[in-house]
Design goal:
Elements (H helix, E strand, L loop, with lengths): L2 H22 L6 H21 L9 H21 L6 H15 L1 H39 L2
Helix pairs in contact: 1-2, 1-4, 2-3, 3-4
Length: 144
Amino acid sequence: MQILPAIAVDVICILIFAIVGRSSHQETTDLLGVAHTAWPFLTGCLAGTVIGRTWRHPSSLRSGVAVWLGTVVGGMVLRVLTGAGVQLSFILVASFVLALLLIGWRAIFRLIQHARSRGETAQDAQHESNLTVSQSRTSAQSHK
């Protein structure tokens, strides 16, 4: 996977986090409201992406941890600096939800890749087995 699709999925995850968080507190989920909630976390996500050099392996779990840490730490620091609320319960919930989203999609992606590669390996082995059987039959028929 390349870096731009990974960044797009990360951004979508953070926007989902902001929308769900705003709606759970009966706040509007219009564009400006979501942008106001999401921008510190999106900025932290960018920092985590750069500091973690996630462009090397964007879908790795290690990259997911770097993005998650940048998102949470950067987001919380920016919220404090801008006077937004940062309660311990919010830090804990945000950390858990963002880990689930930012690391979770990578874990699912890797499981799918692994399953596909195992399926292809099994298909390749079956194909090779069929070729060997076919070649054996052809060889046996030519010796008759």
